[in-house]
## 1
Amino acid sequence: MPIMVPVSARSFAATLFGAATLSTASAVFGGLAAQEVAAPASAPHAQLLHTMAGSPEAVDDATPAAAEPARRCGEFDDKPASGFPQPEVRESAKGVLRTSLVACIGKNKVLDAPSGEMRVIKTTTYEGAIPGPTFVVKPGDRLLIDLTNNLPPNPTGLRDGMFPHEQNSTNFHSHGLTVSPLGNSDNAYRLMPPGSTNRVKIDIPADHPTGTYWYHPHKHGSTTFQFLGGMSGFLIIKGGKGTLDAVPEVAAAKDLVMGFQVIRTAIDGTQPFVHQDAEQFGTFPFFTTDVKQQGVWSTYGLDGAPGRSFFYFTTNGVTNPTVRMRPGEVQRWRMLNASASENLMIDLEGHGLNIVAMDGITVSKMYQLKPGEPFVMGPGQRMDVMVKAGDPGTYRLLSEDPSAVSASVSPSGKIGVAPRNSRHSFDFPSPCAAPAPVRTVGIVDLENAGPNHVAGHGRGQILNASVPAADDPCAKKKPSILAFPFPLATIVVDGKPMNMKLPSDPLPVPEGLPTVAKMLKKTPDVRRNVAFELCGMQEGTIMARARNRLPSCGWYFEKYADIWGGKPFVMLQMMRDADDTGVANDDKEMPLIDFKKDGLFNPNEPLFDGMVAGNYEEWTVTNRTYSDHPFHIHQNPFLVTHINGRPLDQPEWHDTLIVPGTIRQPTNFLPPPAQPNINKIRHGSITFRIYFNPITVGCFVMHCHILSHEDLGMMQRLDVLPGKDQPSVCPIGPSAQMEH
Ligand SMILES: [Cu+2]
């Protein structure tokens, strides 16, 4: 079991990876109940900034920022009943943004749109707010955060030594930033247990591209859990002269952040984790009342089962808030898909969306979508769009059904137009929709769901296990469950007309990145291939048929037989070096064995050798599964040149992009023979050029941004070496903290 790390190795790692824990600070605020410290953040915060004159170097790194305590944790984060809320803004001054940040259980009210009920939720948050505060900095600034983890202690005796566990440990990732991954910078390997205060110090290069970035927890095994409570926030790098922010039409536009999140709780508003006895995807029957079987992300049977769990699609923490615009007004919307797992298929009624930046990076030519034309955002992606209001009226910004509406993964809209299935489950969000409930239990989407779905509540293969209809919650009560399409926001256009203009091409070239021409002209130092792969449990699923599984699956299942708390993994989510083809044998069930490196995340060893700072490489990421997986790489963005092997007219910078599933994606899993042979279909892919900025020397990860996949192991470590033939600056061996 190469991804299990003994406890002794873990504590050793704390030193190696520089996980600086300010225990004195945790003694100061770690013991205080959240609601006892309710000072408003703004006043002391402003004072702090005021007293820290001079360069970032003037800041005393040893001194934790004064307590800006667990404001609002445990109190209601009351948002105005109408209008479009914006998270609290914390902006840098004189080269530094110094702040504290508290992870805690927050109490919020959220509207359940289908029922009209306002419900109380008690979930993992930053400072009680969903999303957390917006950090605004400039290139060259230092980000200095004292992150106090006031989440409850990790339960003792729950999943000890098993994966996943310790759901209340956290850490900090600045998604999209090209900064150091080492020490207390943007280090996803750090571990911040409950009760600790941890210094995060990120120096942003003076030529960093300006735009819309974000931050979120990245503790392996608990990322999905913390996301489902609402833990994430915007991190905006503001630009000056020569950047998108200075384009007159952009500068004149109202600038709104739009953070899309999916919050998920049990019926009492709390977030259960994975019970000791729970199997990977829960236990039959899916609507069991046995608390042992509940788990907010692993027990997929909770999906939408009325009375068992609730979902909320929120925009800045609110269900369907209202944006007001005057006719002819132009606004800039910074959209972020901060959901743990859902592709968002977005369009705006009556209006075209004009994309000016993707994943923070300004595009060279604005993508002008037609009114009602959808684009897709995978989890983790950002899109900055300019919108020009039309005639007075009310318009909905819609989240369309990604299995019913088709789009390319690129807003150029041309290559690989297909449904964009990628979610926790096909049950969601309308489990009791037609056809009528039947009395059999079945599989839905093998990648995204578990074995606990009732056929008729979704689309899937029917198994033979019977469930009494009387126990079926869908049979008892008409469910009030969200159904696609639904509004992410409502746009009300009224008032005195304005005559604002959209920006025109060309938009400014982003700073700090090699030019597109240079990226394309350089002969790659290395070419590599990566593959998303998965193996489903063979018994009782469509993967029981060889035609429906990859040849290596049998080998993997033998190898990982007891990794899920001593039980079999139902589903292995993997990312592999696709140039490592394995050694073939003549066993028909397991024809490929002995890959050099595993597909499951191994924190102790980089997937590739010879990734050298300053090098240019070309990678193709292939998706050998039936549905989409969003690819994300930390530290360095990539320039996408091809989708499904076909060249893009206009190469695109991204740090996260959906790698299309099979071509075409099966949209109906019934009956099983309709499922194409996974080994004979065409697989989706993206091809990109990447430059390893020397500032990123160290070790970091790439992974699927469906965070339940990432938490399960669809991730790999990458080491950028300081020079050719030089060793990694990160330890190799059983030392990493991000163990399963
Ligand atoms: Cu995935």
Note: The domain at 516-736 is CATH 2.60.40.420 (Immunoglobulin-like).
## 2
Amino acid sequence: MLIACGGRMRHDAAVLTDDTDPIRAVEIASARAWPAAETSGHAGWLLRATPGIDRARSNSALTPPAGRARTDDLDAVTAWYEARGIRPRIMVSPLDRHPHVDAELERRGWAVQWDVDLLVASLDDLVRGPAGATAVALWHAPTHPWLQAWAACEARTQDDVAAQARHVLGRLGSRALYALAGTPDAPTGVGIGVVDGSWCGIFAMATAPGARRQGVASAVLRALAQGARQRGAVAAYLQVTTTNAAAQTLYARHGFTRSHGYRTRVAPAPPSGSAPTSGLSRISSHVSQIPSANSGNPIAVRATPSAVTEPAR
Ligand SMILES: CC(C)(COP(=O)(O)OP(=O)(O)OC[C@H]1O[C@@H](n2cnc3c(N)ncnc32)[C@H](O)[C@@H]1OP(=O)(O)O)[C@@H](O)C(=O)NCCC(=O)NCCS
């Protein structure tokens, strides 16, 4: 099986095949849902790099299935990132099945960046759950209004959403659903669902600060679940930091339960003045070499919202 992404797509059959281990299956689904520009397999590790994006999910190595991760591989993983001018990051997943990797990274001075819970829920439960309190439109492309809404709800810069659109969202194609609550002129919430077989990955959930605790995220979750179910998915997963109490409470209320936890660690910063891997300057120089899977600028894509309208709570 392939990662469905553009750019320098590699065949990673040994890493990204479906797996009978349910935790590995959802890890794979998640990696496929948020594709990196460049991927490679190394002794069961999935190496991911996305020049132009400084985000862990797009630029981190996923540990091999439990039992296959060898600390001897850490030097090769590190070298792969350094060769690309990217500060190495490792997603130790599931954390409780890789204590030796986590301990070795700690010993080497790699800092903990995020502790994350991966949560799962059935789409039937989500559709039957709290309805939320607002109308939600589902778009089939990251339109300009949707990107503006994302920037507003999550306080992201225009440059950041443009980079995410170009280097990540542009690779999702028809698998993605973009939810927008409120109106394009006055958005109150956003979310993305990425359907891949029976799974729907939910990303970028955010409610505008002035509209929180009014059922917006609940309505977005439900609309994404309805849209994903229409496309044949049966279950959803998402990732939330362990310290995000608001989101953890929201998802628990909608029936999400914990599948497993993972930890992202980042390598020590290189000594100042040292060559060559302080990252973004070199990353920028690669951007123009990575073709987008989407022809043209995704910001310019037009789409018609499907009529997913939620009743008032
Ligand atoms: C998390 C977030 C999306 C919730 O959005 P929201 O529109 O306020 O959520 P809802 O109004 O639908 O909340 C539904 C339920 O979730 C729980 N909840 C939501 N926010 C909560 C908070 N700050 N504290 C405690 N519980 C909370 C409550 O049970 C709430 O029901 P109630 O208001 O009747 O008690 C929003 O706080 C946000 O955008 N945060 C910043 C971005 C973020 O963290 N996104 C999640 C990434 S995984």
Note: The CA atoms of residues 151 and 157 lie 6 Å apart.
